[in-house]
Amino acid sequence: MIFLRIRRKLRRPLRLSGKAWDRTASLALGQAVKAVVTVRAFTKGLDTDDRPFAPYTPSYLAKRLASGRGARVNLTWTGTLSRSLRIKSASKTRLVVGLGASAARYGTHVNAARQFMGLSPSDMRFLRKVIRRLARDALVRARGKVVSKGGKVK
């Protein structure tokens, strides 16, 4: 599971008022976390240190090649694991992203061998940009103003 304490990790560096950041912002951040972990782990095949996953065992690699799935380590056979990433809980001060019930046991086993659950340095760089935008949107919501399609505050 990925746990983020909103207060410590997000609001203080941005000097964001506790009243501005809301559950809506946390949910949007959760979607961004799911997306960045999915792309890194299941598309690029990188672990939480931004390094390629350990190679498959020879027997499993032979099974993958025989089925036409390829040799690249991407933790995907059916796609169930990648689709099971969920926002487990989100509040104004806390966000938890984890695996759904259908893949929790299997995902824990996979994560022990090839750590995919967590945020890598490149994930954090991307999420900092997302957080700035979400913080701006949260401030706008807190002030009761409307943001136009062009991103300008009315």
Topology record:
Blueprint: E1 2-5, H1 6-14, H2 23-43, H3 58-67, H4 80-83, E2 85-90, E3 94-99, H5 104-113, H6 121-143
Antiparallel strand pairs: 1-3, 2-3
Helix pairs in contact: 2-6
Short characterization:
With 154 residues, the chain is mainly α.
General description of the model:
The protein is mainly alpha-helical and 154 residues long. The protein has helices at 6-14, 23-43, 58-67, 80-83, 104-113, 121-143, and strands at residues 2-5, 85-90, 94-99. The chain is built from six helices and three strands, in the order E-H-H-H-H-E-E-H-H. The mean pLDDT is 84.
Structural class: mainly alpha
Number of helices: 6
Shape: elongated
**Assembly state here?**
single chain
Main beta sheet strand tally, sense and closure: 3 strands, antiparallel
Unreliable runs:
none
For the largest sheet, list the strands in their spatial order. 1-3-2
Number of individual domains: 1
Helix and strand pattern: EHHHHEEHH
Average pLDDT works out at 84
Rounded to an integer in angstroms, the radius of gyration calculated over CA atoms is 18 Å
Beta strand count: 3
N-to-C terminal Cα separation, in Å? Answer: 39 Å
